[in-house]
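Per-record layout

source: Rhodocytophaga rosea
name: Alanine dehydrogenase
length: 375
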Amino acid sequence: MIIGVPKEIKNNENRVALTPAGVAEIKKHGHTVYMQANAGTGSGFSDADYTSAGATILPTIEAVYETAEMIIKVKEPIAQEYNLIREDQLLFTYFHFASSEELTHAMIARKAVCLAYETVEKADRSLPLLIPMSEVAGRMSIQEGAHYLEKPLKGRGILLGGVPGVPPARVLVLGGGVVGTQAAKMAAGLGAHVTIMDVSLARLRYLDDIMPPNVDTMMSNEYNIRERIKVSDLIIGAVLIPGAKAPHLITRDMLKIMRPGTVLVDVAVDQGGCIETCKPTTHENPTFIIDDVVHYCVANMPGAVPYTSTLALTNATLPYAIQLANKGWKKACQENRDLLSGLNVVKGEVVYKGVADAWGLSYTNVDDYLEMATV
């Protein structure tokens, strides 16, 4: 198969979809890899690194899309890429369709095969291609939140871990999944007093067992959230419903009961956000303020640490990319249910229910679609 890796063009997105090591592994299986010039420089990989691994360098993004049968990316295509995508072309990347109606309709119109990292799901309901970036984003959420708590950045002026004789900051984490767990561990490690909320009692029991003494667990409901946000300095939104919009756990009216300088970090913003007042921002302009509350809503947080993120992502995506290249998308998805769950939009049809529900679109069951496609 002919595989293309374009340079990411989203604002301040420095990750790349394949490392040179990944290229070498794909080449061992007899496939051809085309990299756009300078695609890996933001992550610390030169064109020479890629050519040494067996890739061919193409000068433009147009050339990559025109040549490749499968495009491997990090972030969803943006408007200037839409018309480059060909009918039947396989795109393997993060899409987050439930947060962008424009993108959804664009991919339907292009009749491409859109296989989303974020909905590839194993039998145990884990999300193997979302986990690495969730780990990065969860840890970064505390790093960024601590920074924006500083007074010159309009935060409360509180040190996350405090000092002897002065109490630490209070951190509230909404969601006890991968992002929330990593955020709580980082905040606790810095000495903050942490409360982590989830709707699953079984998950709270697990977290209570593994977390250090400065982490409390609490059932997530509106009453508890309203009580905790009154005294929290840093609030992390870490809620995920795979392939669907995140629910708004913090609503517009709740800002009024927060203290001035409270910092909100909505890690779920690329799925619509779990904080009603959040809207996607960029690393260039990461924050905005509403009612004296600082909002940090960068939709590609791991893009700020591209070396770590690129290695972590390729470690997870490469085995699946090789399956797709070896077998073709249809056979690979029929033989591997993990990949099957990643199909979101296929040749003009929405085959993932969460996406169809988000935008009121007709939905075709993915098993039915593949059965019809093979007749």
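summary: The chain has two domains: 2-119+306-374, 131-299. The chain has 14 helices and 15 strands.
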